[in-house]
Amino acid sequence: MPSKNFVLGIFGGGQLGKLLAIAAKRLKIKTCIYTNSIDSPAIYYSDDFIIGSYLDKKKLNIFIKKISIITFEFENIPFSILKNLEKNIPVFPKPEILKTLQNRISEKIFLNNIGVRTTEFKKLKRNKLKSLDNNFFPILAKTINLGYDGKGQTFFKNKSEIIKYKFPNDKYILEKIVNFTQEISVVIVAYKKKIFAYEPIENFHSEQILRQSISPARISRNINEKAKTIAIRIAKKLNYRGVMCVEYFLKKNGDLLVNEIAPRVHNSGHLTLDSYNISQFQSHIRSVCNLKFIQPKKIKNAIMKNALGKNIYKFRERKANNKEFFYDYGKMYVKDNRKLGHLTKVY
Ligand code: AMP
């Protein structure tokens, strides 16, 4: 058990930070949130918080004086900032891991180098668009850094479309569209000496935003094992600590390609709150705070739906029964497609 004065610092104040702070409180671990926005639901559930820019050295200095270790709820914190903080305080997962994974190209190169298959990709070179192979299309162009929920992504059916398009710079990855039959994800938790994989979750996206997740995923035993084995292997190669989520595309012929890795708790893992004895949030807190490993056990099947934008009003009006669990993140502003809550049904 960490000492009485132990405080877990969390970068980011959104729903993931909030659910982490709640999980920490249950384990009697104090938290301090660092966020750049007043619209940060996590600050109401933590013991302390600071609102400031992620580049504000003065405020970051105050933050590290308050805390014992740092973790984060999102992966786009500048590497140099985390690396600097790490001189004084442990950071989990390690900043180097974040550096590799927050860049879609270095992430794929790392995966391919350890023998894990990904989507076919190329770095954008605006002056070489004409030499792209027609067979490479259709494609999605994604910003190399900083993209989430489909932000910074553009679809191109063919070469003539992309030639006409005005990219502001070359900081894009071009990814061949995968004709997948299913999307699945595996949430793992890595302690110092143990790694556990939650059961694969099946995910449904629309406009590149996760809408719904179900557990168990409707996949064969072979694919189930393969997905968990790959995720554990990636975590081992990264020498990972904490929760991480690997997102896959499953093709008709059984090929499993990694789409991306989230070095943090993940939206698809929200259903673990009500379908496992130890959720992804509890697992993350336990592992980064170096608590004893407890093997999560699945207790129910589950289906999770995201409440996006104005849909949150319908979710709020709906009466839940005793198999339904509604989480209202309590964000101030309702914006189109913003993740504002979720509902999990267990069965
Ligand atoms: P991402 O932000 O890369 O996770 O993309 C969000 C979602 O967009 C994915 O979960 C897929 O539904 C879709 N998507 C992204 N990349 C591809 C791809 N190369 N081929 C097909 N669908 C994709």
Strand content: 25-35%
3D shape: globular
Helical percent range? 25-40%
Helix/sheet category = alpha+beta
Low-confidence stretches: none
Distance between the termini: 34 Å
Question: How would a crystallographer describe the biggest sheet?
Answer: 9 strands, antiparallel
The helix count comes to 10
Short synopsis of the structure:
This protein is of the alpha+beta class and 347 residues long. The chain has helices spanning 15-26, 57-66, 79-86, 95-101, 104-113, 159-164, 221-238, 272-275, 280-288, 311-317; strands at residues 7-11, 30-35, 48-51, 69-72, 121-123, 139-143, 153-156, 172-176, 180-190, 195-197, 201-206, 209-215, 242-251, 256-262, 302-308, 324-328, 339-346. It contains ten helices and 17 strands.
Topology (elements, then pairings):
Elements: E1 7-11, H1 15-26, E2 30-35, E3 48-51, H2 57-66, E4 69-72, H3 79-86, H4 95-101, H5 104-113, E5 121-123, E6 139-143, E7 153-156, H6 159-164, E8 172-176, E9 180-190, E10 195-197, E11 201-206, E12 209-215, H7 221-238, E13 242-251, E14 256-262, H8 272-275, H9 280-288, E15 302-308, H10 311-317, E16 324-328, E17 339-346
Parallel strand pairs: 1-2, 1-4, 2-3
Antiparallel strand pairs: 5-8, 6-7, 6-8, 9-10, 9-11, 9-13, 11-12, 12-15, 13-14, 15-17, 16-17
Helix pairs in contact: 1-9, 3-4
The structure holds adenosine monophosphate (AMP).
Describe the protein's architecture and organization.
- The chain has 347 residues and is an alpha+beta fold.
- Helices cover 26% and strands 29% of the residues.
- It is built from ten helices and 17 strands.
- Helix 1 (15-26) packs across helix 9 and helix 3 (79-86) runs antiparallel to helix 4 (95-101).
- Adenosine monophosphate is lined by residues 119, 140, 147, 150, 175, 177-178, 183, 205, 208, 247, 259-260.
- Adenosine monophosphate (AMP) is lined by residues 119, 140, 147, 150, 175, 177-178, 183, 205, 208, 247, 259-260.
